[in-house]
Design a protein that fits this description.
The longest helix has 13 residues, at 331-343. A hairpin with a 5-residue loop joins strand 1 and strand 2 (34-36). It is globular and about 70 Å long. It is α+β, with helices and mostly antiparallel strands. Helix content is 15%, strand content 41%. The strands form six sheets. Strands 1, 2, 3, 4, 5, 6, 7, 13, 14, 19, 20, 23 and 24 form a 13-stranded mixed beta sheet that branches. The chain starts with 20 loop residues before the first strand and ends in a 7-residue tail after the last strand. It is built from nine helices and 25 strands. It has helices at residues 67-70, 120-125, 138-149, 173-183, 228-231, 246-251, 276-279, 303-307, 331-343, and strands at 21-28, 34-36, 41-49, 56-63, 78-84, 92-107, 110-119, 130-136, 155-157, 164-171, 192-196, 201-205, 214-219, 237-242, 256-263, 268-275, 296-297, 316-321, 347-354, 364-368, 370-375, 378-383, 390-401, 404-413, 415-416.
Amino acid sequence: MINTINTLGNSTIPVKLADFELATLDIIGHNGDVIDLTGIYTKIIVMEDMFTQSVNVDLFISDTSDMISTLPIIGQERVELKFKSPAASRYIYLQLWVYRVSNLKVERGELEYRLNLVTMDLVTNFEHKISRYFSNNSAAIALQIFEEFGSSKSLSVSRSEDVQELVVPNISPFAAIRWLAKLAYKSGTSAYFFFENTKEYIFKPIEELFFNVKKAEYKIGPSDVSDIIASLPMIQEWKTISNFDVLANISKGMYKTTNLSCDILSRQVNKTTHSYWKDSERYIESRINDIDGADKPLMDISKSSKLSNLQHNPEIMVYTSSNKYRSYNTDENILSRYYGLQLFENLKIELKVYGNSSISAGDIIGIELPVFVESSSIKDVNASPTYYGKWLVVSNRHTITVDGYYMVIQAVKDRTAIILPKS
């Protein structure tokens, strides 16, 4: 196993579409034996997602030498994976544990199975517990816990404005940091996220991820094998997962939620309400210079829609305990978190594109999709204002096979270029 991680590589021009460089694919047995898997794998799937705590890998093997018994594979094996797309200057480098063997079958006289892998950090995380007092803002506490954990990856963190005095109650480091993400507060933002991508860990509010520049611009168009560079940003397949979901927005507290906070010591009840129609614009102020032209809300928040009774105002209630001696209050924070988590479930799209190892979950991309307008005998194709602007990559599935390297990206946004109400 490599002790020092060297992810630097040379950026080159791809010789074909979906080209890739697989530098390392080794399995290390419990006794230290190393086997090169580059000749017997059939598929590699690397999955990164803002809503999961670890990068996951599925490694499909066609085993003609009964490695599963001769190594053997018993759940104490490590896998080292290092690959990149030609134009990328750095490799994706992952140190992984085998946690399961699945889909075991015999096909055409060969033993086929799937090795399910997770990053070594996740396994190591379960071997540590934190039970002690902290006093600081949530982001600072999260950073302290992460640095003491000792991951080989870095944590990109955004300072929060809350003040916490708390005891982490004998839980693992990652569980503690996920808990702190729920407590973290920063004005102008809705929800902090903690997740791992192929490059680093991130502890930031979702709105601040949009501050980043676009890593790529994808559009509809034909791929031309004679012009590989121009063809790389062409979308191979795409579908809209969701444009909106009124029932989910109601039940999950995006449109309007009220929190009743009860202080049993003083016998007081505080009522706090968060409304999409009144509060959504406060989350755009810090991003106004980075919005890339798509700065309009997804829904009509105008007075005319309110007067027409078109704004959904459900009575969704949540209940929290309160204590005036506690150094922080979660009333407002919990409501904005409900709002933010559901808001980014509305406008969601999925793309299949050529592999680009520079793009990870949490990155920003541009997407240009057409709108078709019939005009007599002429069909005009223009960029749709619904999909224009910055998109946040919430998940990225890298797939490598003999056919090449492709990615399936799921991306979301909370703003469009459509002006509402339409005249």
